[in-house]
Amino acid sequence: MVIHLVLLGLLSLCSLSFSQTCQPEFLENVDFPGSDITFLYSPDVEHCQLLCTQHPSCLFFTFIRADWTKDERHFYCYLKSTTSGKPNSQTPLQGVTSGFSLKLCNPDSEPCLSQVYQNVDFFGSDYKSLFTTDYEECQRACTQDPACQFFTFLNGDFTPQIYRYKCHLKFSWNVPRTPIVERKAGVISGFSLKTTKTQHLHADCQNKFFPVTDIEGSDLQMLKAVSPEHCQFLCSAHPQCTYFSFLSNEFNCYLKNNPNEMVAKPKEGITSGMPARFCQLDDNWAKVAYEELDFRGSDIKFELMENAQTCQKTCTEDPNCQFYTYVNENFSDRNYWRRCYLKRVITMASPAKVNQLANVVSGFSKRNCVTAL
């Protein structure tokens, strides 16, 4: 009976997996109109397809190429989904390329992005700049820097001349973030045990927290977190985070950027602290099952399971799962009992904006490439 229920749940949520096989091919000058989830910027259709693959609910996409002439929407990657798992229609359209998610193709969770793009700017997201002799050296600098996800290099013909040979190192999140954390009776949430795996550092961190303390101002970004330790993990992953404050009642993690001063004030319900970048952080926060906390949204699929421990184990073993929520028999609606929701967000490098610009070269870190070093 349980097996039949599991299959029924998977059928209802993920009809694509039963209606299609792996389809890596692209359809050039074909549009999948409508059914948009969101759009992101991509430098090419291959990157757009990988974004769709990592997005929890994207099933297919349409990419607007550089040769598009109808308006200024170059490098737009439209992520799409339907309840049937298939595009509602396909229409001829010059300047676009469409295709399907690689979720059914056993994709690499950390893909190699070795391509470089001439006369293409990855605008914004800078955290460091330096001068290098060529774009290859700029890409090597990005690959060697753990925080760098992509770069833009201004070559010897760039105008104004004073910026020539400048290498801009750029950041986007490469660790999972839980978009929504809220209290809800009858649910248990947690993380894949692969969540905190980073570089192999032998020295354990001597964590520094300031209980009942707020550091006001200098906000860089607000994210959701389950604990001060989780907030520290997020701060440590961002190269511009100099310290943080965690509001326990709201699960708000405020990353802050002020390298000049740190003004701390006593305040109930807040724990502040500093990042740790060259040591191994304690990952016990990721091993905890958080009762009556819901990580709402970002669902890949659900399966029926007997307990939260099995749900966490399943999430850890699934290469696509980053965190989970399990619904136990204390939940108000029995139709959801024993559901294990597997969840993820995009963690591959994703530029905030992509546009055409003469005499620049952009590309990605090659640390996931076998031949990078």
Proportion of helical residues: 10-25%
- Cα shape: globular
The gyration radius over C-alpha positions equals: 22 Å
Low-confidence spans? 1-19
- Listing every helix as H and every strand as E from the N terminus to the C terminus, the arrangement reads HHEEHEEEEEHEEEEEEHEEEEHEEHEEE
Count of DSSP H/I helices: 7
Biggest sheet record: 5 strands, antiparallel
Overall residue-averaged pLDDT value: 92
Tell me how many strands there are.
Answer: 22
Short description:
With 373 residues, the protein is α+β, with helices and mostly antiparallel strands. It contains 7 helices and 22 strands.
Task: Give your account of this protein's structure.
The protein has 373 residues and is of the alpha+beta class. It has helices at residues 2-13, 16-19, 45-54, 135-144, 228-237, 284-287, 308-317, and strands at 27-31, 36-41, 60-64, 76-80, 91-100, 116-123, 126-131, 150-154, 166-170, 182-191, 209-210, 213-215, 219-224, 243-247, 252-256, 264-266, 270-273, 290-294, 299-304, 323-327, 339-343, 353-364. A five-stranded antiparallel sheet has the order 1-5-3-4-2, covered by helices on one side. Strands 6-22-8-9-7 form a five-stranded antiparallel sheet, with helices on one face. The chain is globular. The model is unreliable at 1-19 (pLDDT under 50).
